[in-house]
């Protein structure tokens, strides 16, 4: 089941090196993005990264990945495979495949290092996005509680500070109304007035069902633009969370299989055809990450979606010059 038509030792080493570099750089960049989103959402008053700093961080990420991938040049290469099963008159079938051919101990140590590096990155990313989620949730709950206190219909432009201003203005209006009513010179009736005032200030215990339904409908309808504004404000955090989850699901099986392959060097691939097919499927599941990423970007980023539509539409409706048709 394994492909045995891969002649070219240099091509094999180059393929493994660049594949490992892109994998490590992608995972490290997601780690950097998680830390950056954490600082932006949970620590907004810390110094922001300038464009120069961001470019240096990206270049540093690629440089670190390029250095960490250098051992693959020595551990992988062209492997000669001889099959006695199809031998005819002392002539065996010979093939070549790209795989690990270095020292088993060194390869095992390298894969263990990559596994620890990946697990550490996943833990840090999980911690960062956990704090981001808690921060977003606390802000949303504060916003909703403030709306209930001032009894206003939520609008997308309202923030917690805006709601506090509305509550403060309502308190000032109530105080002004009480002062105005106290200047009319009504006769003093302390007992009766206290009873009437207490009964008057009590909110109604039951409201009409139609009023409740109408109010609930207004709140639900008014919450829609508020939810859209919330999603628009935190869309990049949600987008990178989704990208990170897909990356971990796609690449973790490959890392585990590489670790097991370095432990059982001689016997790992000596399995049935169905088992090899399943292992190869999990091993190459990382391709799913590259397929899904453009759709994730298009779903969360409206600008990216519009640019792709414009690119396709422009190429589809590209004007054809008369000279190109006639050849003159």
Q: End-to-end span in angstroms?
A: 55 Å
What is the string of SSEs from the N terminus onward? Answer: HHHEEHHHHHHHHH
Q: How would you classify the helix and strand content by structural class?
A: mainly alpha
Global geometry: elongated
**Which regions have little confidence, pLDDT < 50, spanning 5+ residues?**
152-166, 178-202, 322-328
Helix coverage percent: over 70%
Q: Which sequence of strands runs across the widest sheet?
A: 1-2
Pfam families: 7tm_1
Keywords: Cell membrane, G-protein coupled receptor, Membrane, Receptor, Transducer, Transmembrane, Transmembrane helix
Main location: membrane
Membrane topology: Multi-pass membrane protein
Sequence-ordered SSE layout with sheet pairings:
Blueprint lengths: L8 H34 L8 H18 L3 H4 E13 L2 E10 L3 H47 L9 H22 L8 H12 L7 H25 L1 H29 L9 H11 L3 H14 L1 H15 L5 H5 L2
Antiparallel strand pairs: 1-2
Short synopsis of the structure:
By secondary structure, this protein is mainly alpha-helical. The protein has helices at residues 9-42, 51-68, 72-75, 104-150, 160-181, 190-201, 209-233, 235-263, 273-283, 287-300, 302-316, 322-326; strands at 76-88, 91-100.
Textual characterization of the structure:
The longest helix has 47 residues, at 104-150. A hairpin with a 2-residue loop joins strand 1 and strand 2 (91-100). The chain has helices at residues 9-42, 51-68, 72-75, 104-150, 160-181, 190-201, 209-233, 235-263, 273-283, 287-300, 302-316, 322-326; strands spanning 76-88, 91-100. The two termini are 55 Å apart. It has a two-stranded antiparallel sheet. Helix 1 packs antiparallel against helix 2 (51-68) and helix 4 packs antiparallel against helix 8. It has twelve helices and two strands; from the N terminus they run H-H-H-E-E-H-H-H-H-H-H-H-H-H. The chain has 328 residues and is mainly alpha-helical. The protein is 72% helix and 7% strand. It has a domain at 1-102. One of its GO terms (cellular component) is plasma membrane. It is a multi-pass membrane protein. This is G-protein coupled receptors family 1 profile domain-containing protein.
């Amino acid at each position: 089941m394994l492909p045995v038509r891969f002649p070219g030792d240099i091509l094999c080493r180059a393929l493994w090196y660049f594949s490992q570099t892109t994998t490590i750089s992608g995972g490290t960049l997601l780690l950097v993005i998680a830390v950056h989103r954490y600082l932006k959402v949970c620590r907004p008053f810390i110094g922001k990264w300038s464009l120069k700093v961001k470019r240096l961080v990206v270049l540093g990420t690629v440089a670190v990945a390029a250095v960490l991938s250098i051992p693959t040049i020595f551990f992988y290469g062209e492997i000669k495979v001889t099959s006695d099963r199809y031998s005819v008159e002392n002539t065996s079938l010979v093939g070549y495949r790209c795989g690990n051919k270095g020292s088993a101990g060194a390869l095992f140590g390298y894969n263990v290092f990559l596994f620890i590096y990946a697990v550490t990155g996943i833990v840090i990313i999980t911690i960062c996005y956990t704090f981001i989620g808690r921060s977003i949730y606390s802000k949303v709950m504060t916003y909703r509680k403030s709306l209930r206190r001032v009894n206003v219909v939520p609008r997308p432009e309202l923030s917690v500070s805006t709601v506090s201003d509305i509550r403060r203005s309502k308190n000032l209006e109530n105080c002004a109304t009480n002062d105005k009513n106290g200047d009319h010179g009504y006769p003093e009736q302390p007992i009766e007035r206290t009873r009437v005032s207490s009964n008057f200030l009590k909110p109604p215990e039951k409201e009409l069902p139609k009023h409740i339904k109408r109010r609930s409908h207004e709140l639900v309808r008014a919450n829609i633009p508020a939810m859209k504004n919330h999603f628009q404000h935190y869309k990049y955090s949600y987008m990178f969370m989704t990208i990170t989850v897909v990356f971990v699901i796609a690449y973790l099986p490959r890392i585990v299989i590489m670790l097991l392959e370095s432990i059982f060097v001689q016997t790992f691939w000596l399995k049935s055809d169905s088992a090899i097919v399943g292992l190869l499927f999990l091993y190459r599941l990382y391709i799913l990450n590259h397929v899904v990423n453009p759709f994730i970007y298009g779903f969360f980023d409206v600008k990216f979606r519009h640019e792709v539509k414009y690119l396709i539409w422009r190429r589809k409706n590209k004007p054809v010059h008369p000279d190109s048709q006639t050849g003159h």
